[in-house]
Design brief:
Distance between the termini: 30 Å
Number of domains: 1
Structural class: alpha/beta
Shape: globular
Helix content: 10-25%
Largest sheet: 4 strands, mixed
CATH architecture: Roll
Order of helices and strands: EHEEEEHEEE
Strand content: 35-45%
Number of strands: 8
CATH class: Alpha Beta
Strand order of the largest sheet: 1-4-3-2
Length: about 130
């Protein structure tokens, strides 16, 4: 089971402002901070996300094929997270919509080029 995910950043202060607002929409708050990273979580034992400056001192780069998926409770929350990401300077990677039966998602990149999505599971047909 996933405990936390990290995304690289070259500007921790800028990343912190982006994720404070974005993850706040999902009821996540800062849970840990050090010189090189800041972590957010929606609860004491919830999955966390951290923005981190690479330990080796090299520039952070976005991984090709790497993506962080943020669970949302509804299509409206998916859209709100997506809209906020773009408002904060993130880049569009695919607007809100149903991608496959019962799977609703929106895709975007953060300020460092890391790919994320917000998604929810739609109720099944009866």
């Amino acid at each position: 089971m996933i405990g936390y995910v990290t995304v690289g950043t070259n500007d921790l202060e800028r990343a912190a402002k982006f994720y404070d607002e974005l993850l706040g929409l999902l009821d996540a708050r800062r849970s840990m901070e050090m010189d090189r990273f800041i972590a957010w979580s929606a609860g004491e034992h919830g999955v966390g996300l951290a923005a981190i400056k690479p330990l080796d001192g090299n520039a952070a780069t976005a991984g090709n094929g790497t993506m962080v998926a943020l669970f949302a409770g509804s299509p409206e929350q998916v859209k709100a997270v997506y809209d906020k990401a773009l408002e904060l300077g993130g880049a569009d990677e695919g607007g809100p919509g149903e991608r496959m039966p019962n799977f609703y998602a929106a895709y975007f990149r953060d300020l460092d080029g890391n790919k994320l999505n917000a998604f929810c599971i739609l109720p099944g047909e009866e």
